[in-house]
């Protein structure tokens, strides 16, 4: 089993990252480099989270071996026995041989740092650029990132000059590397605590509110009103952009040098707009070089960028509107079925997507009624209580993990108790649940937040390339400080435990933070305590109230604006429901008419066809009889027509003039 667990987790994490990326990204329409870069960033971050518990169990076993080697002992198979106390150091089932984990962590960490600080910012500007060639997009990306890269180079250069001039500092390359890692982790820890404070409260609260059907329905109405406003804005924006594209397409003709750029823009437009513009084009008109009203290539690149953004936003709002309608209809069905006497779940509308037969066989209407109306609310309540308990443990441990005597961090207590008995299964499960819960709190916040239309992760393949790359960049910056924080909570980091023991392979790659004592003994210890204030602010919805005061409508039960938007959304859902009911009624009537009169219409149609064939054959026989009487006369008429054509005078196109009067011409007969 040596290394088998590592290989299995590597494969499992890859498919997990691929599944999530398929849910949010669009493999068919987005660029392959964007998909590969985002997949690599997500994969490396998830891999660190899943592999770190194996590193902890392997480190505990290596510490046991070091303790055995420092005292007389005898070896016996897969474990080592201490002679005086007869203590046994069992090798864990997921043990990773020496030398593998340091190389693994070094490759994963530096690859993720290269992605987040160099490659992904460049690809963001490249994907957002409106250039028409690869060279133009690269040039635009370099110009946009010049300030970004120049700032880091300026800070790093100033620091190197300060170190070179000051004789008190005698830093080596390893120490400079550690300082760079500490700076990156400090930036990540600053953002990590903000996201963690929100997730620790919002995740249990969202599951608790998920058990309230009335709350979910009111919030869905609220979302419907806001989404309709955004949808109308997106449609209006798309119309304005398409009008500009139409004007540009009419002004730049087929033989203009910039016509290729216009054709590239037209390919990005929706199909109905392409057909409409294609009908109004006249490619037989040449462009006039003397006119100065033609747009430049720079303005076309700007228009290209606006077209990509407006089309993506319009498509996203359309898909989100359909998904929100399905959610609203389903929640209304749940509210109606709660008082059902038959205890069978009845849907107002049938699902538009074909359901799996296996799911239909087991998930019957009776099972669905018991799950949706009885079991699901209680399940969400129990899950919310469990998550709230984890949140309280995390907050307590974040505030007390620096205390080593006595050990107040509950996660450190759990790991140390398991370490005494060398129960590696328990150690790995406890470590995995701890870091998995921390990751869920942080990563779910990254998936939930929305910075206007600048950054937004939308499911059902509606996330643009810029947001995907930005999420990968955030994951790569948040994961290393998240893992260091986890090791500090469990006292596996020697900087926190103040013990001269063997560090984990991950900590050895990070280097000793003692080079910067004010960060190791100050910021890393006391800044995570800020999570208490952030949790309190999230519990009382202070951020939501501030956004509501600034004019950004948020869902608040005690707000008049929220009540108005709920009523508006309820009316919109009712209108869409009536529209869909009329459509289904029309389809049902057509289906019933076809089933009732379809056979009769077929027999009538076949009888009419048979009658027409008889009539046509009768008319053909009657028409063929008098035809022989007039054969000679028709032949004479045909000969006269040929003679008249032979007597005609051919026109001379090389003559000096053309006369309209035939009397002025020579007869030639």
From TrEMBL:
Subcellular location: Membrane
Keyword annotations: Coiled coil, Membrane, Transmembrane, Transmembrane helix
Residue ranges of the region described as Disordered: 576-669
Origin organism lineage: Eukaryota, Metazoa, Chordata, Craniata, Vertebrata
Primary localization: membrane
Entry GO CC: membrane
Family: Belongs to the LIMR family.
Cleavable signal peptide: none
Residue ranges, compositional bias (Basic and acidic residues): 582-617, 635-644, 657-669
Name the UniProt record assigns to this protein: LMBD2 protein
Domain of life the protein comes from: Eukaryota
Compositionally biased intervals (Polar residues): 618-634
Coiled coil stretches, renumbered: 224-251
Transmembrane regions: 6-21, 33-52, 103-126, 146-165, 177-201, 378-396, 425-446, 466-489, 523-542
Topology class, membrane: Multi-pass membrane protein
GO terms (BP aspect): adrenergic receptor signaling pathway
């Amino acid at each position: 089993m040596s290394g088998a667990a590592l290989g299995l987790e590597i494969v499992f994490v890859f498919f997990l990252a691929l599944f999530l990326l398929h849910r949010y990204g669009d493999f068919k329409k987005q660029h392959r480099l964007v998909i590969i870069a985002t997949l690599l960033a997500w994969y490396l971050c998830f891999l660190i989270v899943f592999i770190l518990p194996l590193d902890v169990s392997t480190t505990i076993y290596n510490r046991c071996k070091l303790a055995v080697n420092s005292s007389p002992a005898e070896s016996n198979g897969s474990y080592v026995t201490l002679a005086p106390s007869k203590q046994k150091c069992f090798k864990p089932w997921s043990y990773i041989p020496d030398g593998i984990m340091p190389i693994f962590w070094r490759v994963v960490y530096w690859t993720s740092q290269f992605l987040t600080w160099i490659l992904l910012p460049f690809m963001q500007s490249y994907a957002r650029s409106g250039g028409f060639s690869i060279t133009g997009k690269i040039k635009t990306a370099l110009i946009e990132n010049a300030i970004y890269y120049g700032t880091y180079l300026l800070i790093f250069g100033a620091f190197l000059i300060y170190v070179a001039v000051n004789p008190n500092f005698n830093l080596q390359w390893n120490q400079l590397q550690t300082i760079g890692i500490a700076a990156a982790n400090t930036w990540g820890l600053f953002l990590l605590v903000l996201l963690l404070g929100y997730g620790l409260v919002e995740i249990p609260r969202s599951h608790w509110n998920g058990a309230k059907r009335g709350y979910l329905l009111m919030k869905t109405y609220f979302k419907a009103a806001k989404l309709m406003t955004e949808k109308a804005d997106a449609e209006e924006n798309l119309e304005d952009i398409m009008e500009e594209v139409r004007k540009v397409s009419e002004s730049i003709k087929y033989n203009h040098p910039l016509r290729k750029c216009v054709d590239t823009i037209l390919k990005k437009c929706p199909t109905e707009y392409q057909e409409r513009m294609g009908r109004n084009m006249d490619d037989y008109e040449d462009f006039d070089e003397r006119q100065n009203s033609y747009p430049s290539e720079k303005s076309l690149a700007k228009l290209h960028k606006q077209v990509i953004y407006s089309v993506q936003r319009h498509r996203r709002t359309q898909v989100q509107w359909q998904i929100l309608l399905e959610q609203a209809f389903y929640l209304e069905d749940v509210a109606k079925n709660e008082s059902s006497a038959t205890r069978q779940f009845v849907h107002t509308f049938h699902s538009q997507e074909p359901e799996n037969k296996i799911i239909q066989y087991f998930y019957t209407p009776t099972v669905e009624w018991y799950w949706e109306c009885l079991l699901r609310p209680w399940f969400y309540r129990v899950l919310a209580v469990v998550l709230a308990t984890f949140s309280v443990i995390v907050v307590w441990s974040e505030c007390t993990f620096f205390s080593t005597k006595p050990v107040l961090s509950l996660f450190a207590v759990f790991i140390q108790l398991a370490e005494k008995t060398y129960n590696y299964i328990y150690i790995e499960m406890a470590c995995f649940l701890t870091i998995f819960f921390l990751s869920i709190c942080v990563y779910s916040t990254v998936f939930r937040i929305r910075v206007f239309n600048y950054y937004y992760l939308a499911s059902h393949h509606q996330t643009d390339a810029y947001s995907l790359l930005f999420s990968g960049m955030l994951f790569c910056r948040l994961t290393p400080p998240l893992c260091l924080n986890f090791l500090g909570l469990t006292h596996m980091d020697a900087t926190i435990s103040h013990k001269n023991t063997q560090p984990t392979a991950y900590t050895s790659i990070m280097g000793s933070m003692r080079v910067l004592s004010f960060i190791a003994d100050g910021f890393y210890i006391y800044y995570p305590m800020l999570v208490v204030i952030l949790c309190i602010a999230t519990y009382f919805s202070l951020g939501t109230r501030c956004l509501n005061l600034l004019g950004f409508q948020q869902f608040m039960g005690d707000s008049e604006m929220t009540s108005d938007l709920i009523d508006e959304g309820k009316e919109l859902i009712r209108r869409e429901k009536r529209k869909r009911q009329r459509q289904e009624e029309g389809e049902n009537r057509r289906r019933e008419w076809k089933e009732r009169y379809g056979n009769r219409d077929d027999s009538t149609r076949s009888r009419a066809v048979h009658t027409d064939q008889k009539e046509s054959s009768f008319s053909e026989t009657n028409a063929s009889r008098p035809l022989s009487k007039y054969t000679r006369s028709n032949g004479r008429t045909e000969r006269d027509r040929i003679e008249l054509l032979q007597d005609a005078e051919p026109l001379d196109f090389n003559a000096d003039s053309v006369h309209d009067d035939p009397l002025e011409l020579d007869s030639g007969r």
